[in-house]
Design brief:
Blueprint (H helix, E strand, L loop, with lengths): L3 H7 L4 E5 L15 E3 L10 H5 L2 H8 L4 E5 L4 H10 L2 E2 L4 H8 L1 H10 L8 E4 L2 H11 L3 E4 L9 E4 L14 E6 L4 E9 L4 E3 L3 E5 L11 E6 L5 H19 L6 E10 L2 E8 L6 H10 L5 H9 L8 H5 L9 E7 L5 E7 L14 H8 L1
Parallel strand pairs: 1-2, 1-3, 3-4
Antiparallel strand pairs: 5-8, 6-7, 6-8, 9-10, 9-11, 9-13, 11-12, 12-15, 13-14, 15-16
Amino acid sequence: MTSSLENLLNNSGFDFFFLVVDKFLDISLPKLKNFRSLSQNNLKIKNSGLLLSQKNIQAQIKKSKNPVIVPFKASAKIDHLCQKHGWLNASNPSHITRLLEDKIKFYQLCQKENLPQIPAFISPFTHKNFLEAQKIFGQKIVTQTHFGWAGNSTHLALNYSDINSRIADKTLTKFSPYLNGYSLLNNCCLTRQDLIQSPPALQYTGLKSLTHNPFATVGRQWPSHASFEIKEKIRQITIDFSEKILKPLNYQGFFGLDFLISDDDVFLLECNPRLTASFAFYTEMELKNGLTPLFYYHLAQFINLDYQIDLKTEQNRFYNQNLIGSEITLRNQQGTTIKKITDFKIFSKKINPLVIDPDIIKKLKK
């Protein structure tokens, strides 16, 4: 079924160029005739801004009368190149996304707005402050510095000596307790009318057969198996986050949130102010179920497309029980994805602990 928004995008007069350097984050949209990927995985380019600066890439873009650059992730270099060449940039300004990705500033923003977070304090990383954190929170301490990905800026420690070689002395650090539980995520889009969010997905975090890092995400699945009450808490936290933080920043389009569920408490962990690692597969699930993808709304938002939306119907996808699918990834020691398996099935029937079919793990490691 072709959505009316898909038709409008196809006839918008714009050409969309998706900018991504990781083939595992790429997306194929054959029904969107004016959408193409600029991914060049044969190049040793691991930076989207650098990819966009390549002459052969720019030559492709310049063939279009109305190009729209669609970065997987915003950057100052992409902002600069789009401004220099007069290309429309379908991402939020990099200074906004950088603010939201900063784990310490994010905590401070959410704390100011009374959004539920794991208790923490922020201080320079020293032996004294580590011991102070243990006095407040107990033996197991989680530390986070400003920026990181795939869990590489988050560390669990029982002793200062466990991590003092990983964090430079006096680096500003967030100290918090380690809580048992499981993590969920959602995909969302702030449209011209209001927020639309996906059902929560269960994150495959710290799966011991695939990672030694307890905070590394190696996949996710819909449905999450979370209770109705937990999902409703997530829905409301996402609305509050959108109203209190994103809208005042004039943020628009796609984003994702991560949550920790410990007992019956729901804590907001972080925001991915961009297209998420799951957006491509989630888009496949939406199309399979006859839904207008959140990604289409993202594209429409940045070209200021005039379209009609039945907001109540679109927001009801949060309760859609037919969105079923799983993806699981294998990473190398540097945290880079080297293989991915996706299927419109449930990989784990249990939520905590996760239990993935050993055959799937075996197939992933082949």
